[in-house]
Amino acid sequence: MNSLLRGPRRAVVLLASAALLSLGTAATTTADPDASIVSRTPGTGRSLEITVHSPSMQRDIALQVLRPADTRTPAPTLYLLNGAGGGEDAASWSAQTDAAGFFADKHVNVVIPLEGAFSYYTDWQQPDAGLAEKLGNNGRNMWATFLTEELPPVVDAAFGTTGANAIAGISMAATSVLDLTIRAPELYRAAAAYSGCAMTSDPLGQAFVTLVVSLGGGDSENMWGPIGGPDWQEHDPYLQADRLPDIPMYISSGSGLPGLHDTATDPRLRGNEKMLWNQLLVGGGIEAAADYCTRALQQRTHELGRTDIVFELRPSGTHSWGYWEDDLHRSWPLLAAALGT
């Protein structure tokens, strides 16, 4: 195992750039109104932006919703999470992929949170002043409560859904996806995690989490308590693999070596050599670490008899959007079948 860790440990120093590329004890709350939609703003095509009040976070949360063409017939819902940037920057599904076009002929509601940067979409033990200052909010992060308890009933009621849900996410949020399915095993019918690190409590995972949170000025001890403590283990999908729900899952990573999308001719790079080298060096190192975590999770789930989980382990590919767009396309048949659409 030490030989496996050697390469990824060298990559830990690169993990702080994850947001640039992809970019417990619950806190007590006072009485607050129920979760509800407080605004709707039409977007392009069948896209709209909504804000939903979160009682647990005591603030309004922005989300993008992609509606199906046929809104008269109930459709299921895919919750699609952005990476470390939380959709609050240009590193988002909408800006970097063909998500809107891809789902245009799919009978599904796609709900994309536009907040949650550096939060791991988890319930934090304490408010965080650093994240509050950087992101301009109150520092309360109760994302698991919001995503699994507050938001789904609001979406179901507002858009007349079938009540069937799936969840997918990249990078930081890929880790969150697995953790959320453990927290709410009855909520999701399928899940997809692209280029995440499921090992949040080993030294590599702790370094990954701590560095990503620190990019937002946050303190990871406000999230899960002292490093190495029980909450870090509780939110470690590798350690908690026996609690992963028996639902279809797609989990992917690349080796970190240059691949199809790592050329100057890739449309996202637009011939920019600096961006290309950043993607090759930084993105390659990050993806190598994610690949280590993903392979370890595959071994662990196989030991538990979970041979049904689809692991897409690519021999090449960096931590970048071209591969995540491919993953979204490849995992959709699995997600769609589970959603019944």
Automatic annotation (TrEMBL):
GO terms for molecular function: acyltransferase activity, transferring groups other than amino-acyl groups. It comes from the Bacteria. Pfam families: Esterase (PF00756). Keywords: Signal. Residues 1-31 form the signal peptide. Transmembrane segments: none annotated. Gene3D superfamilies: alpha/beta hydrolase (3.40.50.1820). This is Esterase family protein. It comes from Nocardia speluncae. The lineage of its organism: Bacteria, Bacillati, Actinomycetota, Actinomycetes, Mycobacteriales.
